[in-house]
Amino acid sequence: MSTENELFSAVDALLEQVAQDDLPAPAERKRLREAAGLSQAQVAKALDARREAVGNWEAGRTEPRPPKRAAYARLLEGLAQRFPASAADAPATAAAPAVPKTFASPAPAPAPASAPAPAAAPPARPRPVASSTAGPVQASRRPGAKKAAAKKTTASAAAVDPRFENGPLAVIDVDADGQVSAYCVGGLVLDVPAKTIPALVDWTLAEAKLGQTRLHRNGRDADPILVLTASALDRYGLPATLSEEEQNAGRLAAGHKVVKQIARAGLQLTQRGLGPWARVYRDPEGSRRRCVQLCILPWNALNAREWGKKDHPQLLLTMHPGELARYLGLYAARVMTPRGSTATTGLELMTALRPPTRAEKDPATGEFKRAFNDDALTQVYPVVECEVPDEHPILKDKFARHHLRTPAEMLMEEAYDWCRPLTDEECANRYLVAVDINMSYAAAANGLVVGLNGPTHLTGNPKFDASLPGSWLVDLSHVDLARVRINGRTVDGDRLPSPFTPTGERPAGPAWYATPTVAYAVELGFDVTPIEAYVRTQTGRYLDSWYKRLRDAYVETMADMGVTTDLQGEEFLEAMARRKQTDPTMALLETAIKATAKGAIGKLRQRSRGQVPYYEPYPALERVNWRPDIRAAVLANQRTGLHRKLMKTAAAVDLYPTSIGTDAIVYPSPGPSPLDVLPHTPEGKPAPGTFRLGVSPGMVKHQGTQTVLWAEQLFEERGGVFNISNLIKTDPTAGEGE
Prior knowledge:
single chain; 738 residues; alpha+beta; five-stranded antiparallel sheet; globular
């Protein structure tokens, strides 16, 4: 016969099985843990569970199962006794959700009197959901952020496309027990039953519900992305690294067994083959694409200089799959689903926001046909000799071998690389302070009018027209900055760079310039007489939506790290200094967004990477957005916009830069802070038209400070003055991706 203790043990076990709703509401679980000062990791360790599981219990995505459930309930009961909820914190009673019969739960047992009132358990999710993992959430310090976040979450939840309810991407990882999991955004984890790459692709298309809704009504939805970790490569028979020959080819050898598996399954690869970024697809079903993009992490699909930290190249490889999904998911939500490098993604973003074509109904037949959009780049147009790089096919047999084209033969619109010696008066200052323009290329694209059609050649000394984007052959050597009056004052032209050359040297004769550069010469008050020009007559602000998308992504990400647009002065500098410790994942996102803006502008004039011999066509030339004239216009606008502020700063307080590298400007200063050098009005506001501290694109931040003595020692070691602007960095990664 059983003893009393054995009977009690059996009853306790039975109660444990049926007491499924003896836990407080998810929000109360989190409140109790935070009130006790415990982390999710501490709770997980005590319960022999994963930190992600604790996060899911607090978010209400999953419920703990015996025996962990009883232990978790005991912990919460004890915390509830120590930290009782106030009336304001008490959770409202929620109506019990409808539960499908297939997943009906047993009736709840009465809760202990000392425990908080239980909330109804969420309905069980059908397969393929196994569990979910919540990434760490950083509390915002912004006033009203919680209300705004709640409204945003509600709005986004209502707008979720049911086809893509699990997000744009998943990180595929294999645990020690051999279980394959797909870590999605929002902490969701899916069980993956697929045992081969073809089966994985088919599972993604049929069950995973991954993808992203189009960014423009005339565009197309983004294909789902699977990020494969090292353990996933081993599980699916892919090599941990590519051989040297395969790296040079950018793809796995055609004879590899996985490539053959894909072919036997009736799937296809694009011409890029199975490389770091691969597309595997089946033929479309009507208008529905059936394509999955593979991002193979160990094959350097996510370059550390763009997506991670250049001083920690293994960071992304060692990041937890759930955190990596959070990072890439945020990038997809704020920018777009990655398409390769940040530069490639930035270029694709232009097309996604300005699709070249749309469906138009034929009034005669009633059928839809393809039509072109007036505000987009729609086709490959003839190029202009002065605008293309040296290896372009159009230049074949034009110049002698190894000839270096002159400014009169080539459009040389580039960012600044300029420096000068310090004057004796400037050496009396103790410090050199470097400030850096936020997202300078993106800011220069804002409101810029660019050409959308092919070039028109103007000859016979055409009159300059600032409304026509293009390239102008004109002599600007007569422009003397010392003759320019800014608010009734003149400046020392010898201590400022020329606005017309990247080196800052005064032009010696006729040269090719983009429209913004010539327009700036006119703005300074000088006559211009073009010799000839190549202009575009169909114009538009093609990059405006691209800029706004990246601006919003950058500002939102910086706000998540505590750097908001309302911060000024010392408060802004302090927030910038501590931002990367606030949330390391957001710091990575900041770098990726900046690299996206910079890289996309460079892609507009992508050069041959050695794929073909000189003067042979290379793949980039086939793109409709291979437009070197647009890149030149952005860089010209960036450089002249920077120079405009240099002039106004010099006129306001007689302050001159000593070196400039792209968008980093170095000023001599009596103190170590930008507040010691940047001009302000008597009311304490930034002087109009000068550099202004702030987080928005086009404003400046502190890049770093060094002493004048430090610079003089470098000049002595090098044997002369050189550009030190990008050596003055308090943070070694400051200015990256600008």
